[in-house]
Specification:
The complex is a heterodimer of chains A (271) and B (167).
Chain A lengths: L3 H54 L10 E8 L7 H7 L8 H21 L5 H8 L2 H4 E8 L6 E3 L8 H22 L9 E4 L8 H13 L3 E4 L14 E7 L7 E7 L4 E4 L3
Parallel strand pairs in A: 4-5
Antiparallel strand pairs in A: 1-2, 2-3, 6-7, 7-8
Chain B lengths: L5 H7 L7 H11 L7 E6 L1 H11 L6 E6 H10 L6 H8 L7 H25 L8 H11 L7 H17 L1
Antiparallel strand pairs in B: 1-2
The chains are: A alpha+beta (271), B mainly alpha (167).
């Protein structure tokens, strides 16, 4: 009887070790059997294709002062350690050495275990999903270009932009995102490519508003906007219906419907 | 040492990369196997994907500059477990020659041959003859001796010097 506790402890420890070994084996099979490849495919799809396409779509547009925008995609500062995971998944299966396979498996296993330790009550599938959610690892970053040739800086309070330029940068980024999401759903033409803007383009100069509306047209995004003194009758916009709402004091609202055909305005009946 | 793992070998020797390895071989042979600088290679989509999978970074189709040191590092840490020189040798059919070393050896051999010539001429009492300088100059420039294997060149030199001494 005296040796019973020791024997029991040994059996518990060997059982735990066997479980850990089995767990490692299963995890290795899962990671190397497709998770790594899928992770790479999705990261590439998001970063190299989607964000790169978004950046390309906004490349040609600038304010009248020569301010432009470039969009990028990178690891968040707090997740830079995951760069090694991305480097290993970017290495082809047949290229990775045994040591690299073990390193990749351990890095991902460790990450899943961190989620498990933080909330043991959630299931393993939830931990796996959270740990491998590459979208949480990354961020879209905005770089402001110009006005000087070759000048660029990250979007921040120190970027020294006028209010109108700040809005321009925000609009361009927003439009690119509004384009990127439905585009990423596939090219079956059924995604709703619509943007709604309340009090649009305040403090943005007329020439830049024309550029921004032209960008929406280029991106094939339909739009519904409200604004003060916002007409949108620019050559960049091929078709537009404008409803002007006027009221004087407590009077009833009077509306005027104007149709823009890309060249001229036409008064239309509102009834 | 055993060859590259089959999967990796197939990955690297795909038709889309087949023009890359001779370029690297030529560069390494010319530089005495030095892992420095870069080579310019043209890649199609498949070649770009394969190189990307080796270097673990995006590679676009088209003209690419590939640093030898980066390739060497990638191969050493990969399932290949060997450096660029060994991999290029395996993919291009044999060990790489070392051109600078070959050139150096040839210079040393020529130096020894001309020293041997001076010794023979002095030994036969021919060093002060009027024709000696133009003749040795002709031998230096002509390559008739330096193209021969070392032992044959020495033998030919000894016979020539002996014959001239008897004239």
């Amino acid at each position: 009887m005296a040796g019973a506790p020791r024997k029991l402890t040994e059996r518990v420890n060997s059982g735990l070790a066997a479980l850990t070994d089995r767990e490692r084996e299963v995890f290795t099979r899962v990671v190397l059997g497709g998770v790594a490849e899928e992770l790479l495919r999705r990261v590439n799809q998001a970063g190299q294709r989607l964000v790169a396409a978004m950046s390309t779509s906004v490349k040609s547009i600038t304010t009248s002062n020569g301010i432009g925008v470039r969009l990028g995609w990178g690891l968040r500062e707090e997740h830079t350690a995951l760069g090694r995971v991305l480097e290993l998944v970017a290495t082809s299966d047949v290229v990775r050495s045994e040591a690299q396979n073990s390193e990749l498996t351990e890095l991902l296993r460790h990450r899943v275990e961190e989620f498990h330790s933080a909330d043991p009550s959630s299931g393993y599938a939830a931990h796996l999903a959270a740990a491998l959610d590459y979208r949480q690892w990354h961020e879209v970053n905005v770089t402001i270009l110009g006005p000087e040739e070759g000048q660029q800086r990250r979007l921040s309070r120190r970027a020294k932009l006028s209010q109108g330029e700040t809005r321009f940068v925000s609009y361009v980024t927003l439009f690119a995102a509004a384009d990127g999401y439905p585009t990423s759903l596939g090219d079956d033409g059924r995604a709703l490519r619509l943007i709604l803007l309340d009090d649009a383009f305040g403090k943005v100069d007329e020439g830049t508003v024309a550029e921004l509306m032209g960008l929406l047209v280029t991106l094939d995004l339909d739009f519904v906007m409200t604004g003060h003194a916002l007409w949108g009758c620019f050559p960049q916009v091929p078709r537009l219906d404008v409803y002007e709402v006027r009221r004087s004091g407590g009077s009833s609202a009077v509306t005027t419907h104007v149709h823009w055909d890309g060249h001229s305005r036409h008064l239309r009946s509102t009834t | 040492m055993s060859g590259l793992p089959a999967g990796l070998r197939a990955h690297l020797s795909a038709p889309s990369l087949e023009r890359v390895w001779p370029v690297l071989r030529n560069r390494l042979e010319q530089s005495g196997h030095a892992i420095r600088g870069s080579v310019t290679v043209e890649l199609d989509d498949d070649g770009a994907d394969r190189l990307s999978g080796l270097l673990a970074r995006p590679v676009r189709a088209g003209t690419n500059q590939v640093k030898l040191a980066v390739l060497d590092d990638a191969l050493r840490s990969s399932a290949a477990e060997r450096g660029l020189v060994a991999v290029v040798a395996e993919l291009t059919g044999g060990p790489l020659v070392d051109r600078p070393a070959e050139r150096y050896d040839a210079r040393v051999r020529r130096g020894q041959l001309w020293a041997e010539l001076d010794r023979l001429l002095t030994g036969h009492g021919l060093a002060g003859q009027d024709w000696t300088r133009p003749w040795t100059h002709w031998l230096h420039r002509g390559g008739v001796l330096t193209r021969l294997p070392d032992d044959q060149a020495s033998q030919a030199l000894a016979i020539a010097a002996g014959t001239l001494a008897e004239c």
